[in-house]
Amino acid sequence: MRSGFLFATRAKLKPFLIEPLWPLAGFCDNRYRTDEECLRDDRESILFGPISDESLLGLPSPANAEDEEEEKDSCSPRKRFWEGIRAEANHIFQILQQDGPGFNAREALDTLQVMISPALVREVLLHILMSVNGANKQRCSRLGYKFFVWAGQQEGYKHTPNAYNLAMKIFAESEELKAMWRLVDEMTQSGLPVTPRTFNILICTCGEAGMARKVVERFIKSQGFNYRPYKHSFNAILHSLIIMSQYRLIEWVYQQMLLEGYQPDVLTYNVVLCAKFRLGKLDQFHRLLDEMRDKGTTPDLHTYNLLLHVLGKGDKPLAAVELLNYMTDVGCHPSVLHFTNLIDGLSRAGNLDACKYFFDEMINKGCEPDVVCYTVMITGYTVACEFEKAQELFEHMQKRGQLPNVFTYNSMIRGLCLAGRFEAACAMLKDMENKGCKPNFSVYCTLVSRLRNAGKVSEANDVINHMVERGHYLHLLSRFKGYRRC
């Protein structure tokens, strides 16, 4: 059987990996790196973001409408609609902020005579959520609850699961866990479905408090858990856990799933395979591949994606060629994502010649590299101190219409610093801003730490001052130790 070839590749997947690939900037770990962390030269810190477990497995992000931006460039009526909603939300938020002795925000809201809608409630709750910090979290939770209750009492309006999720998130950020759980109970009593997004919020919040397994047990048993579009609740839970890097909990959920008599499908196997790989349990990874074969589960594009990355990081380019050819033979044509993850693995193994081979091969096969693929290649060259090749690729990608993203610029800035070209690195920071690419904190952190290491303290302070003048990341200034605002 031709399928035997695929599972024979497991013999090539020897236990060459013990450590996880890199930290995942997932839902539960959204902190910015400290100045000390930015001093590290390891390549994992540079690639913090471009490739995640979701892209490796091709998993859709969990429903998260509250974090999405509406399209602003489509039709003008839609744009005007959202501008009106935001204006009303801003007005309501300003009223809520005045709440206190001598001012009753609830009475003031009653005089507005606004039409309450899910969109308006979403915008107001988002305002409150984005304003939560260590100093005002109790006040934010109180204002969030006051508005949530008031909105729910307005005629013609009923809270949606999205509104409950946002309110829960406000309580989670404010560390009001009892209030958060009361909302969960209220949501289910109202007959609303508990969604994977709800699960994400709860597992993330309670995971830090050591209650993650209890949360999972509750959702497994819940009759009101809307796990669609997944096959069953276990797959919905596994999907959420892989996004949050809860690899050991994935193992436990998988065992519970088998005990309950549910059969894994290819999505289940992909998630569990990824977890085993991240935990460095290559023997169990191999056994799962055998189990897939024995049960007749056909690998999909995402299974191949994971296998290619494993082969890449194990520095097995010949085995990767065989697997790519096999994929083509069975009609599963490799995409830019497959080549990118293979190249990323090979880059981490230090085999840049193989990276260049597969990069050229994908172009020859008519597969156009995207910005992530270019960034992986550029990062490989900068880590290897081959900056001229990185610069050549940086220019090449723009000629082919691929605009650099924040991770591309971060790699280039780091490469320029390694080459001692600090003026060019500072100029690139301004260039990316001029081209509409807003630097994240990691970009500033990379440049500042490199300048300080080179003894260019004044220039480093200039970069921080530039960040402050732009109004970027003012709440993170304390991360730059020794810096004093003028």
TrEMBL record:
InterPro entries: PPR_rpt, TPR-like_helical_dom_sf. PPR repeats lie at residues 265-299, 300-334, 335-369, 370-404, 405-439, 440-474. It holds the Pfam family PPR_2. Keywords: Repeat. The keyword Metal-binding does not apply. Residues 52-74 are annotated as: Disordered. Transmembrane segments: none annotated. It comes from the Eukaryota. Gene3D superfamilies: Tetratricopeptide repeat domain (1.25.40.10). The keyword Transport does not apply. PANTHER family: PENTATRICOPEPTIDE REPEAT-CONTAINING PROTEIN 3, MITOCHONDRIAL. Belongs to the PPR family. P subfamily. This is Pentatricopeptide repeat-containing protein. It comes from Dendrobium nobile (Orchid).
